[in-house]
Backbone:
DNA sequence: CCCTTGCTTTCCATGGCGGAAAGAGTGGCG
DNA sequence: CGCCACTCTTTCCGCCATGGAAAGCAAGGG
């Protein structure tokens, strides 16, 4: 039984976004700052990539105020997981693995 | 035992080149036209990508005349295989697989 | 009020990419 | 001998993505 249809997705493929998706794929939620540090990009660059993922419907952005601090947490949406899995499957197919 | 050091390689990562490397990784040699058809790009685009791979030292281009026809065959170099394997390992790492 | 925190948006310069078309090398053919 | 076909290769061109820097903005604190 095939888990997912391999499907190349340019939105997911770009290096920073591939990393972001990869990170979010293994956690329920991750904070903006943590992702920024893990991916090693500037605030502005991360913000722009997250926006693209959000507009694609792949990432959900939740803002909250915790302990009087603004917190933005990111999470893959169901569509995001599907797209990511499909893209990874396609990479596997391409890689001949 | 880790086969290769995961290492992101932008030259390999671009979609058309990832496909080219993926194809060449599983055969000794492949002709220009066959790669062009498999990757579904125009002659000029394939030529340009192959050139990049060649300049990176990842692909060897051999020209020969067979049956009075010009034949260009492509093959991964050792360095190409190493780079491809390392990149795939990095993708695997990113994908959390 | 002004400052800090935590993103977001704008501005700008760079570079990659693909399509189209011209070019170039080689052999076949009349 | 000249022309043509076949196979890439190179050039020209415009488009779009991307990152860095800096200005913006919202909210809470001092």
Residues:
């Amino acid at each position: 039984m095939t888990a997912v249809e391999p499907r190349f997705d340019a939105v997911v493929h770009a290096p920073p976004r591939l990393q972001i998706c990869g990170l979010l794929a293994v956690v329920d939620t991750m904070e903006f700052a943590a992702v920024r540090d893990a991916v090693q990009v500037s605030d502005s660059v991360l913000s722009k990539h997250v926006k693209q993922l959000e507009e694609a419907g792949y990432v959900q952005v939740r803002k909250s105020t915790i302990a009087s601090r603004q917190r933005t947490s990111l999470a893959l949406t169901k569509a995001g997981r599907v797209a990511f899995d499909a893209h990874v499957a396609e990479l596997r197919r391409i890689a001949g693995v």
